[in-house]
Each structure stands twice: as C-alpha cells, then as structure tokens.
Amino acid sequence: MDEQLKYLGTTLTNQNSIQEEIKSRMKSGNACYPLVQNLLSSSLPFKNLKIKIYRTIILPVVLYGCQPWWITLREECRLRVFENRALRRIYGPKRGKVRRERRKLHNEELNDLYSSPNIIRVIKSRRIRLARHVAHMGEWGGTNRALMGKPEGKRPPGRLRCRWEDNIKMDFQEVGWGGMDWIDLAQDRDRWQILQHVVMNFWVP
C-alpha cells in the first residue's frame, strides 16, 4: 500500500516515489491559472509580460523543491506537456495565411517562440546546483546520505529504480561531459558554473 504525507509542502511516500509529488506540483500550478486567467487570455500583444507572469507565478509553484527530484522520461514528458499547455494559452492559436483558420501551435513552433530554457532545463540546472552543495558536504552530510546513501536490507524484485545520482550522471553525459567524476569536478567552481550554464541552455529537440 502506497502511503503518503505532506512535509514542508512536499509529498513523501513510503515507496520513495516522485510521481505523486510531480502530480501534486502540477495540480498546484494549475490552481494558479484562475488568478492570472484574465491576463494570460488577454488579446493584448504583451507576450513578454505574459511569459514573465508564467515564470514568476506559475513555474515556481510547479518547481518547488525540484532539486532532489530523480525524474524519468515519463515525468519529463508530463512536465513538458504541462508547460506547452501554458505556452499555448499565452501565445494563442495561429492563423492560416490562406484560409485564415485558427489552429493550435505545434510543439516545434512553441520552442521557437519561447526563448527561455524549458521546464526540464530549469530542473536540471537546479539539480546541478544542488549537486555541488552535496559534493562539498562530504559523505557524512545529511543531504548527502539522503540523496546518495545506500539503504540496508534486501531490495524488492524488479528493475532498479533511477536514483538521484543517476540523473546527475545522465545530465553530464547528455551535454558531453560523461565519464567525469562529478564529485571531483564540483571542487572547481569555475568549471562547475560553465557546466551549469551548458545544462541550462542545452537544446534538445
């Protein structure tokens, strides 16, 4: 039985699952829309203002406490769908040049219009930032033990779950920094800042 509780605004489960937390965060983000509905649905051509509203009001609610998330491709897809839905509200439908019909913008068109890093890049950048703090804490730090510690006892049958540290290594590999020891690299502040910038702005189709 999957039991859960709320602690400091974060959903914790006895199965150590992140899915319920992400669902809860997106639900809270959707609850923000009525507060800014008139502005986001306005026909006024202030797209930059609408984007700023999204990034300062809705996005922080969804990404609250996202630094320790270990997300799979399934969760990434859900989060991208959430953001694309928000961007379609902001940019509105596209008019055809010939028949003047209106249609929803495709994902590729949204990517071209939205110049800021998408929601997944923001999560990965924040995760990289936390990783440096974890590396500096050493193996006896509480956060280090919670995120990287190996639990005692026999694990349940089935496929190994993706760990937080696995996501860090995949982030490195994604941007071409694979094979490096991220704990050692975290000691070099300048190189780590370069890495964080690369992760934030890395383009994924």
Report on the structure:
It is globular, with a radius of gyration of 19 Å. The chain has 205 residues and is mainly alpha-helical. Helices cover 58% and strands 6% of the residues. The strands form two sheets. Strands 1-2 form a two-stranded antiparallel sheet. A two-stranded antiparallel ribbon has the order 3-4. It has helices at residues 19-40, 47-62, 73-91, 107-113, 119-137, 142-148, 164-174, 182-185, 189-201, and strands spanning 4-7, 10-13, 94-95, 102-103.
Summarize the structure.
The protein has helices at residues 19-40, 47-62, 73-91, 107-113, 119-137, 142-148, 164-174, 182-185, 189-201, and strands spanning 4-7, 10-13, 94-95, 102-103. With 205 residues, the chain is mainly alpha-helical.
What is the element layout, followed by pairings?
Elements: E1 4-7, E2 10-13, H1 19-40, H2 47-62, H3 73-91, E3 94-95, E4 102-103, H4 107-113, H5 119-137, H6 142-148, H7 164-174, H8 182-185, H9 189-201
Antiparallel strand pairs: 1-2, 3-4
Helix pairs in contact: 1-2, 1-3, 2-3, 5-9
Descriptors:
4 strands, single chain, two-stranded antiparallel ribbon, mainly alpha, 9 helices, 2 domains
